[in-house]
Amino acid sequence: MAWIYLLVAGVLEVVWAFSMKQSEGFTRLTPSLITFATMAASFWLLSLAMRSLPLGTAYTIWTGIGAVGAFIVGIIFLGEQVSALRIGAAVLIVSGLVLMKVSSS
Fold this sequence. Notes:
The chain has four helices and no strands. The protein is an all-alpha fold. The longest helix is centred in the middle third of the chain and has 24 residues, at 55-78. The protein is flat and about 45 Å long. Keywords: Cell membrane, Membrane, Transmembrane, Transmembrane helix, Transport.
């Protein structure tokens, strides 16, 4: 169950990062409220996952899902730049996440 909590927490991290961008510096109410709600839920689920997963593994995977997810959302929804170097960086992050998962007991 801890891995499910961690996966959902990572997805919620992507949601709050995107809604924070949409809030325009917390000047728009609805995206600001979404940011705070999903941020709180993400932290809560991360804390539940950390009950049984090692700190280093849980935190690294949580931030990795957030980083790669935000990268993908930025490209798809915000028209951010796609380049071989940026894609290579995302692949390296995912590779690190896989190694963390494999090395966890």
